[in-house]
Structures are given as C-alpha cells and as structure tokens.
Design a protein that fits this description.
With about 210 residues, the chain is of the alpha+beta class. Helix content is about 30%, strand content about 30%. The strands form 4 sheets. The protein has a 5-stranded mixed beta sheet with strand order 5-6-9-7-8. It has a two-stranded antiparallel ribbon with strand order 1-2.
C-alpha cells in the first residue's frame, strides 16, 4: 500500500491509502491557475521544458540507484532504470558518444572524497552547461569547483571551451554552507582552498 496526496492551491485536499508500485509519482497540472501573474515571467514552452528536463537529469545522475521517469504532455522525456553504475547512467542521459570520452575520477584526501567522470581533453563545449557538480550528492553550483575544473585542464583545453564533467564531492556537511542562495543551488565551502586543491588534484591524476 502507498499514500495518495492531492494538493490544490497549496491546500491539501485529501490523503488516503492506495495501491501502488514502490516509488514516488508526482503529477503537476494547471500550475499557475491561481497565480496567473507568474505565468508572465515564464519563457517559451520549450525553454521551460528544457529547464525541467535538466533538473530531472541532475536528480537521476545524483542517484543512479533510483529509477527515474519524466513525462511531459504524455511524451516520455527521461527514462532510466535503477543502476549503481554512474557511467552506464551517463551513457543513457548524456549519450554514449559522450560517456565513451569520459574517464573515472576517484580520490580521497583529508576526509574529502572526489569521484565521478571527466572528459578527455578533446571533448569540449562552448558553455559550462555540461559541467555538473554535486555535493553530498545534491546538484550544486560552486565557483570553487568550476575553478578547480578549469585549472586541472591548463594547457589541454582552448580558452572559452569547457570539458563536460560529472564531479561528486563527499564531505562532512558541517564544511558546507547551503544558505547562500534562496533556491539552495549555490553553496559555499568552509575551506574553499582545500576543496579546490583536492578536486583539482583528483582531476589531474585522472587526466595523467
């Protein structure tokens, strides 16, 4: 048995037991029916759908052991089965040609574990969009990690080009400040120098 919860306009309408497969299913309809003013700030449908797809992709990459499906207007967008292998999941979500040109990173120093996948020097992009970073293992944005990635490829990548990266940092939560952005996406490390040095060293070792 599972639990079905219906919410309308921020008010819980009902909570009842129901038969269901293991897992969680979230269905969203008429998102702005009671806040039409917010709709004006939305961009084109394709743009908003791309944002949603990226969020779900990040969640799927951060949790390989969990199966994830995303359907928009009855159209399947993301569908991955549970798999403990990050490389296998990356091949599905990012494309096999991209995953084939990425190498494993795995290093531990001073209680900090760095792991994930980094691109071979020949694989680059014109933006940083495919540099995805995770901490414990939440998807985050951190200048410390972006600088570490950049500095690890000093003469291997042309200026203005960015190698795709899936970089995970496992660290004591007390060493991370998550309250620097309303959406909790940006973070700040207590000791950014240490994180930058350990991250950069792990990536350089993989490239060597």
């Amino acid at each position: 048995a599972g639990t079905e919860v219906s919410v309308s306009g921020g008010v819980i309408q009902k909570v009842n037991e129901c038969g269901t497969a293991p897992g969680t299913e979230v269905t969203v309809r008429n998102l702005f029916y009671n806040t039409p003013a917010r709709r004006k700030f939305m961009r084109k449908t394709k743009t908003e759908e791309a944002h949603i797809e990226e969020i779900v992709t990040l969640l799927a990459l951060a949790n390989p052991a969990v199966g994830v499906e995303l359907t928009i207007d009855e159209r399947p967008v993301v569908s991955v089965q549970p798999d403990s292998d990050l490389a296998a999941r990356a091949a599905i979500l990012l494309g096999r040609h991209v995953a084939a040109d990425m190498m494993t990173v795995n290093a531990t120093e001073n209680g900090i574990t760095i792991h994930g996948l980094v691109a071979k020097p020949g694989l680059t992009r014109s933006t940083r969009r495919e540099q995805r970073t995770f901490v414990n293992p939440r998807p985050v944005q951190s200048d410390t990690l972006f600088y570490a990635i950049r500095d690890a490829y000093p003469t291997m990548v042309m200026k203005g080009r960015y190698p795709p990266v899936l970089l995970f940092v496992d660290i004591d939560p007390d060493q991370v400040d998550v309250n620097v952005h309303p959406a909790k996406r940006e973070i700040r490390f207590r000791d950014p120098r240490m994180i930058g040095r350990v991250s950069g060293s792990a990536i350089r070792e993989a490239l060597r």
